[in-house]
């Protein structure tokens, strides 16, 4: 039986209202009480995820910014990988279609150059809010992640441009069809999960993980059992055709799969 459960948040543990359902919360608490460890692994910022963790009521490791940052149960930062300052500035000031919006995770801050109130819907419970900044002049020496939001087809063009220019020196991946994320080339959720497990004397084979986006690919490929959500990005489904599937996040896909895997009471 698996000793660790690792889960992405948006489109996985969180439903379309960006909340953890009561059923999912109950299932996770039951497993932790049985001695199973739980780890959150997300593209979200640490400040945002810390609130979700506190609301859930569990002392767990947090892998954030797609693995660029890792905090332990005591909120101690144990890993932090930033993008080189000159590269971060190029990414933040990339020439692009005006409908594509740039976001920067800089230290404890989420920086943008223009108001984007629709993005705050993802963070209404935590209250995590962006700060307006001028990327041409703002210091960019502590950037963990740059991400672009907009139409998928336009983001595909940016993805190709960045891959051609930076190659493997950056990790360029989609978390959602309308969100292209960029981190240091050595950063991904799989590496971060491996480091957390090793610190706790556990192996990847002892973990089961859930995800829905291409930023979950490495994690789902590396653990003992990687489960793809029913609402997953088509690219992830195509990349992992042999991985097990569960139902969607709105159908409590993580909780239902765990209930069956760990022989818990069936979910109605």
Task: Please name the defining characteristics of this protein.
single chain, 268 residues, alpha/beta, six-stranded mixed beta sheet, 14 strands
Average pLDDT? 95
Structural class comes to: alpha/beta
For the largest sheet, list the strands in their spatial order: 5-4-3-2-1-12-13-14
Query: Quick one: biggest sheet?
Result: 8 strands, mixed
- Count of discrete alpha- or pi-helical segments spanning 4 or more residues: 8
Based on CA atoms alone, the radius of gyration comes out at 18 Å
Shape: globular
Q: Order of helices and strands, N to C? A: EHEHEEEHEEEEHEEHEHEHEH
Q: Which blocks of ≥5 consecutive residues have pLDDT under 50? A: none
Give the amount of beta strand, in percent.
15-25%
Termini Cα gap: 24 Å
Task: State the helical fraction.
Answer: 25-40%
Q: Could you explain how this protein is built, in words?
A:
With 268 residues, this protein is α/β, with parallel strands linked by helices. The protein is 29% helix and 24% strand. It contains eight helices and 14 strands. A hairpin with a 2-residue loop joins strand 10 and strand 11. Helix 1 packs parallel to helix 8 (253-261). It is globular, with a radius of gyration of 18 Å. The model has no long low-confidence stretch (mean pLDDT 95).
């Amino acid at each position: 039986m698996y000793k660790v459960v690792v889960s992405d948040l948006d489109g996985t543990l969180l439903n379309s209202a960006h909340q953890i359902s009561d059923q999912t919360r109950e299932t996770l608490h039951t497993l932790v009480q049985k001695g199973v460890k739980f780890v959150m692994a997300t593209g979200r910022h640490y400040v945002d995820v810390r609130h979700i963790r506190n609301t859930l009521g569990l002392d767990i490791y947090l892998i954030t910014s797609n693995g660029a940052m890792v905090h332990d149960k005591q909120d101690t930062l144990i890993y932090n990988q930033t993008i080189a300052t000159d590269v971060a500035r190029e990414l933040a000031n990339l020439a692009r279609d005006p409908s594509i919006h740039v976001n920067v995770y800089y230290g404890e801050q989420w920086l943008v150059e223009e108001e984007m109130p629709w993005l705050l819907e993802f963070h209404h419970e935590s209250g995590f809010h962006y700060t307006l900044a001028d990327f041409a002049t703002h210091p960019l020496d502590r950037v963990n992640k740059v991400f672009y939001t907009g139409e998928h087809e336009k983001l595909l063009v940016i993805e190709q441009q960045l891959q051609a220019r930076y190659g493997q020196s950056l990790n360029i991946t989609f978390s959602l069809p309308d969100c292209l994320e960029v981190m240091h080339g050595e950063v991904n959720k799989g590496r971060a999960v491996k480091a957390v497990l090793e610190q706790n004397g556990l192996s990847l084979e002892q973990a089961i993980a859930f995800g829905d986006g291409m930023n979950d690919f490495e994690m789902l490929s590396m653990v003992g059992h990687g489960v793809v959500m029913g609402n997953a990005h088509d690219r992830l489904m195509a990349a992992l055709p042999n991985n097990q599937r569960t139902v969607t996040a709105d159908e409590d896909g993580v909780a239902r799969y765990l209930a069956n895997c760990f022989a818990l009471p069936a979910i109605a």
